[in-house]
Amino acid sequence: MKNLRVVFMGTPEFAVPVLQSLIDNTNVVLVVSQPDKIVGRKKEILFSPIKNLAIKNNIEVFQPIRIKEDYQKILDVNPDIIITCAYGQIIPKELLDYPKYGCINVHASLLPELRGGAPLNYAIIKGYEKTGVTIMYMDEKMDTGDMIDKVEYYIKDSDTLGDLINILSKEGANLLINTLPDIISNSINPIKQDDEKATYAYTIKREDEHIDFNKSAIEIDRLVRGLNPYPYANTIINEVEYKIIKGHFENENSIPNKINIIDKKNLGIGCSDGIYYIDEIKPSGKNAMDIKSFLNGVDIDKFKNYIIR
């Protein structure tokens, strides 16, 4: 497959093993990624993980603001196939129709479940028993194309978003490389998705990150794990935002949405069916720390009376 001219389109960390596998096994002639971000008070330019990998391998990077309006560069390199993985924009029909082997997407769910931009987050948040990766042909809609192959993964109670990214990015990369020869030889039988079984995992919004301590412990725990390592779940205590990185549940009598337990080693907030103990926390503007270190720096007598919202 070393002669296969590939345009790869992707942006986040999840897509890195997929691109690396393509670099190792094919001829990646162009990498397309979302525009650079400007972050922090110093307004530093942040490259995407995919752009960093492309630069490391001396592959040209194209970063259109709107791919639907700016795609000629991709046509100019004459790709045999276009492969996307968590790119972040809908691909226009002009690109979908161009390559002789089509446009292939590596999607982090078992389609038609969890179509959209945050499938691994919601696989944990919504309590799915299993998730996985689907290789599919692309069409003009969001994650609705015919399916080529899948790999499944059963979610553990301890899995975080970071765990799923680490595991499934590699599984997806292996599945793609194993599937490509059949795509090239046209020896596959794609399966149409059942739209009636479709669920959606739209991009996480700011309000989705907030913890409601009137909910059950398992709902809170899933939210915390589903947003770790980014953007993290949060709570507001005494008008200050705290990112909650890790916690655990104890089945104890509680008053929901209030600080129920606080001492030099423990901070427990009541929920609908017990107490959720915070194990790791990130105060606004500070580094993450374990709860004991955090409590060493607060006035416990005052903190226990703070309002949570």
Structure description:
The chain has 309 residues and is an alpha/beta fold. It folds into two domains: 5-197, Rossmann fold (3-Layer(aba) Sandwich); 209-303, Methionyl-tRNA Fmet Formyltransferase, Chain A, domain 2. The protein has nine helices and 15 strands. Strand 12 and strand 13 form a beta hairpin. Helix 1 (16-25) packs parallel to helix 6 (161-184). The radius of gyration is 22 Å and the shape is elongated. It starts with a strand and ends in a 6-residue tail after the last helix.
Give a quick precis of the structure.
This protein is of the alpha/beta class and 309 residues long.
Note the main attributes of this structure:
six-stranded antiparallel beta sheet; single chain; Methionyl-tRNA Fmet Formyltransferase, Chain A, domain 2; about 25% helix; alpha/beta; about 300 residues
Order of helices and strands: EHEEEHEHEHEHEEHHEEEEEEHH
Q: What is the CATH fold-level name of the largest domain?
A: Rossmann fold
Q: Radius of gyration from the CA trace?
A: 22 Å
Q: What is the number of strand segments?
A: 15
How many helices? The count is 9
Helix content: 25-40%
Tell the overall outline.
elongated
Give me the CATH architecture of the largest domain, please.
Answer: 3-Layer(aba) Sandwich
Topology, element by element:
Blueprint: E1 5-10, H1 16-25, E2 27-32, E3 37-39, E4 44-46, H2 49-56, E5 61-62, H3 72-76, E6 81-85, H4 93-96, E7 103-107, H5 119-125, E8 130-137, E9 147-154, H6 161-184, H7 217-226, E10 233-237, E11 240-250, E12 259-262, E13 267-271, E14 274-283, E15 289-290, H8 291-296, H9 300-303
Parallel strand pairs: 1-2, 1-6, 2-5, 6-7
Antiparallel strand pairs: 3-4, 7-8, 8-9, 10-11, 11-14, 12-13, 13-14, 14-15
Helix pairs in contact: 1-6, 5-7
